[in-house]
Specification:
Layout lengths: L1 E6 L4 E10 L5 E11 L11 H22 L12 H9 L4 H13 L7 E7 L3 H18 L3 E5 H7 L14 E6 L4 E8 L2 E7 L5 H11 L6 H9 L26 H15 L2 H6 L3 H29 L4 E5 L6 H14 L2 H4 L7 E3 L3 H4 L4 H9 L23
Parallel strand pairs: 1-4, 4-5, 6-9, 9-10
Antiparallel strand pairs: 1-2, 2-3, 6-7, 7-8
Bound molecules: 5'-O-[(R)-(carboxyoxy)(hydroxy)phosphoryl]adenosine and zinc ion.
Length: 399
């Protein structure tokens, strides 16, 4: 079974093609996974949805052509769309840039050998989601291929099943999804069986990285920028502490906006000094702040996830989302889980709780995660007329 997947929920335009040998233990063969990260947002320090929507319209067809070519599925033809052209125009009436490009593409290339189109339909930035959804509808209509709508958060979790050896994921599991828009702890009793047990009450962890980076004058996205500079800070160096919001609260919720404000005040205090007023923030100060903000975020994420893992007696911790690409987060999660959830402390006979995370390039947004999730939801095919975007979509409460 071949799955063509589309991801446009934020500022990454992604197309992937996944070949799956169906069965009890599916065998995944990645034919292509192309991600075009929109550079335009770097200069603004954040994503403007309407700007991102326009970029997706321009990027989708070229990215699809690259993905099909890499998969050996791009075959030239020469045909007129005729009657379908009107329907296509209607589907893409709010995507005029895309309409012109896709029409030319559909007249130039054959329908590829694909069984399912999987597309992110939420959550995410509404205008961005709609471009991907309408693009999927257009392809589905002209090629007559059914659509499987995919939840982006579920995809950040299920991408872990692409490379994980069978039997490694024991349920129940606790998933921590940490991205630019979300921070959620999700109890998982199996694939498709989820319950959100905690989430952020304000900013997401990735958002905190991004906003802190902006305050410190660093580029967007802030997570990788802060991580890189933080790695240059010697652990032995003294540093004053930033707050760890809600770290000891009895629930599983998070809050990161206070942390961002604390950084803002620290930077303002620093800037008030006459020397800094003329020279700007010193590299030493920025290094220290990067180290501190990263550690403050990590401390909260790790402590609350371990508490949830203990309380719900899970067997596996699954990490996903852009922030899970962070090296320190991965390292400290493994260390602390070993220490606090060892066989003895958790009462398991053979081994402790496993921590799994995706390959780094699959932590951040990509369409391969949408393809894998499309596979696990392959029985939920719908006709293109039924598809719509939902910016506030949540993983279904099946527990
Ligand atoms: O999952 P993702 O690619 O997009 C959303 O669904 O939001 O996550 C993007 C977020 C951004 O906030 C970015 O700063 C953060 O993930 N991020 C990181 C790292 N790489 C990306 N945060 C910390 N450390 C990283 N290495
Ligand atoms: Zn994401």
């Amino acid at each position: 079974m071949k799955i063509l997947a589309i991801e446009t929920s934020c500022d990454d335009t992604g197309i992937a093609i996944l070949d799956v040998k169906d069965g009890k233990k599916p065998v995944f063969n990645v034919l292509s996974n192309i991600v075009s990260s929109q550079q335009i947002h770097q200069q603004y320090g954040g994503v403007f949805p309407m700007m991102a929507k326009r970029e997706h319209q321009k990027n989708l067809v070229p990215v699809l052509v690259r993905a099909l070519k890499q998969s050996g599925l791009l075959i030239l033809t020469n045909k007129q769309l005729k009657s379908q052209s009107k329907t296509l125009k209607k589907i893409l009436e709010k995507e005029s840039i895309l309409f012109e490009i896709i029409k030319e593409f559909l007249e130039k290339y054959e329908k590829p050998d694909v069984d399912i189109i999987a597309v992110t339909h939420g959550p995410g930035l509404e205008p961005c989601l709609w471009v991907g959804v309408n693009f999927a509808k257009a392809l589905s209509c002209v090629w007559d291929i059914p659509i499987v709508p995919v939840n982006h958060i579920e995809a950040h979790i299920l991408v872990n099943f692409l490379s994980t050896r069978p039997g490694l994921v024991d349920f129940p599991a606790m998933s921590l999804v940490v991205s630019g828009g979300h921070t959620q702890l999700i109890l998982m009793k199996g694939i498709g069986k989820y319950k959100i047990i905690g989430e952020t009450r304000d900013d997401a962890a990735g958002e905190c990285f991004d906003k802190s980076a902006k305050i410190l004058g660093l580029e967007y996205p802030g997570g990788p920028a802060i991580a890189k500079i933080a790695s240059q800070f010697g652990r032995g160096q003294t540093s004053s502490k930033l707050p760890r919001p809600m770290i000891n609260s009895k629930d599983y919720d998070f809050s990161f906006s206070g942390l961002k404000t604390a950084i803002l005040y620290r930077v303002r205090d620093e800037q008030a000094s006459p020397v800094v007023q003329t020279t700007g923030l010193s590299e030493k100060f920025v290094r220290k702040m990067c180290f501190e903000v990263q550690q403050a975020i990590l401390d909260v994420l790790i402590k609350k996830t371990i508490k949830a893992a203990k309380d719900f007696k899970v067997k596996t911790i699954i990490l996903g989302g852009g922030v899970s690409a962070n090296n320190e987060l991965r390292k400290q999660f493994v260390e602390k889980t070993k220490k606090e959830l060892s066989p003895n402390s958790h009462g398991r006979e053979n081994n402790g709780i496993k921590v799994i995370f995706p390959e780094k390039h699959l932590s951040t947004d990509n369409a391969l995660m949408i393809a894998v999730t499309g596979y696990f939801n392959r029985t939920k095919k719908i006709a293109w007329q039924k598809l719509s975007a939902n910016a506030n979509l949540r993983v279904s409460k099946l527990l």
